[in-house]
Amino acid sequence: MSTDNSDIEAKVLLRRWLLDELGGATNCNVLECYGGLGHIHDAVYTEVKKHMAFELRKVNRPTWLQGDNRVLLTKNAKGWDLYDVDAYADPWRLAASCHRLTDSKRYGMAITDGLFRSLNTGVVNGFVRQRISYNGITGNSGLITRWYEDIVKWLIQDWGRYGVSVEKAKKIKSKNSHLVTYYGLILRKDA
Ligand SMILES: C[S@@+](CC[C@H](N)C(=O)[O-])C[C@H]1O[C@@H](n2cnc3c(N)ncnc32)[C@H](O)[C@@H]1O
Q: Do the Cβ atoms of 99 and 131 come closer than 8 Å?
């Protein structure tokens, strides 16, 4: 059973920091790629200039679009100041799509990452495998868990292929799960 918000205080703290860095909530257009039932929205996004949330589950809220975020993003990727990528486990493919598709020059991204668990169990998806050249190791290979920090750094540096660089970053480990880490990033895209 997946937990929607293992440490909601940390998530809220990061998002408040991001909104401040981006000129305040009322100046920000926010896209939540994993909107869930709206806990984060209700905690930090009620005052934002514009809001949209993608969610697989049916949620009866005015700014929610039901469906697969990979599909919904293709038509709704542009014009956002903050991309919220609050995934259960793997935010990396969708984060890369946001960077590829956005037309914003300076923007924020909130990420919830469960890659530590994936590395531990050896169940790492094809996107991350390909980006970190992990294809040679199969099965249960907790072997590379100790490189978690470096792998995250490589995944973030890989956004350079879309002209994206990091201006500021904050990281908080979930206090309730050692498998989950939260990142807040202020980014620039030159392209
Ligand atoms: C960590 S929870 C998000 C919590 C949410 N941000 C909140 O405020 O409570 C992850 C959510 O992503 C949704 N989800 C998972 N895969 C998805 C996909 N491909 N497209 C859209 N939503 C997805 C799940 O149904 C779940 O509600």
A: no
